[in-house]
Every structure is written in structure tokens, then in C-alpha cells.
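Lab notebook, bench 4. The sequencing result for the construct came back, and we need a structural model before the next group meeting so we can plan mutations. Quick request posted to the team channel:

Model the 3D structure of this chain.
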Amino acid sequence: MLMIHGISTSGLTWEPLISAFSGHFTPVTIDLRGHGESGKPASGYLYDDYIDDLDGVFAAMGEDRPLIVGHSLGGILALWWAARHPDKAAGIVAIDSPLRSGQDYMPAFDGWLAANAMTADELAAKYRTECPESTERVVARRVREMTTTARNVFVELRANSLSNDGVDRLREIEHVSSPILFFEGDSDAGGMVHPTDAQSLAKRLPNVRLVTMPGAGHSLHLERPEEFLAEAVPFLLACAADVHRL
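Done. Here's the predicted structure in C-alpha cell form:
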């Protein structure tokens, strides 16, 4: 089971969930290009670049029917990897992954760019203010992840998102036939999925099951892990069982 983190984080973000998943699966985490301990080329941070990397990861693992769990950008990459391989994923869990591009997401990109330019002390103070419940260990990890993310990760994805303003991005993935469990956070609590997009996804792809979590924000899997796992684990187990029956 490949677990793909969101923008500006790393594979370490999955640590709180690894033990719960390990009882059923073999979870594998990676650092996306430009993040964490992975290489940071001067350019090459668009969807196709990441998807090429995922193809390489699955080839190296010898895995042709993977389970994939992705948060935010990680979920987008899982879905768009599936657009290239419509029936290869045994199952996909996408966590509060935006399904459109454009002006709606410019404030988020601009915020990430501003945070990426801060000093470690400035960023730590920001995180302590925004998330007073976070431990110092989590704050230190987030500071390290944000300040070491390649700046062009944000620059290139921002420009690409803006260039696709108003484009029907769901059309690009509506041929995917792999089973998908899509978690939607609450936009009033920081969720990043446009209010109509998750419902539209579920209507246009009959293989999608939608789970909404009122009051949960963008990182709903970490904010309310018990609720998340209660939905995700049975779904993934059923997907794995279906593969074994084939």
C-alpha cells in the first residue's frame, strides 16, 4: 500500500497511522520529488513528472495492482496516475484532494510560498499560533518539511493551476474504473475540496464512494484518525480481497 503525502510535507506525515495500517497491509511511504529526502531538481514539478515517478516506484516494488492512499496533492496524483492506468489500482483512498484548478487556490499557493520563504523561527511561531495543539515534535517536523521543499514545487503547480482555471478536470479522470474512496473535509474548517466537486465526482464515477466529515479540516485523517480508519481500512481490505479473487 503506497501512501503519498501532500504538498510541502513528507512521508513522515503518515507516522500516526502506520501502526494501524500495518496490522492489515504493508504500508510504504515515499517523499515526492522536491520534498523531504528526495531529489530537488531545478524544475519538473507538474502532475506528469510525479506520475512518471510513481510508475518507477511501482516498477521497483514489482507491484502491478497497488493500493494507494493519498492526501491532498497525494490524492490528486493517485487519481491522475489512475487516469493513465484506469483499472490497475486495486483501490484508491483520496483524502480532501482538490478536484479543480484556478483562482480558488491562489491564496493557498501564495500562503505556501510565503511560508517557504520564512526562517525556521518565524515558521515555528506561525505553526504554534495556528495549531496550538501541535506538539513541539510536530512543529519541528513541519518547519523542516516546509523550509526544505523546493520552491519551484509551489511555483510550477501554481502556474499550472492558474492556466487551468475553469477547466473541467473531472473529465480527465471519469474513465477510471478502479474503486475509489474519497474523503471530503469541511470547507468551513479548512477543507480544500470545492463544495460541489465531491458530489459531482461521485455522480460521474459509479466506482466512487464519498465520505464527508463535517467539522473536519484538510488533514482530517490526522485530526480524526479513528473515524478515518473506520472507513478506510474496511474499504482497502475489500479491495485487496477482490484482487486475490481474480
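The chain has one domain: 2-100+169-245.
Will bring this to the meeting.
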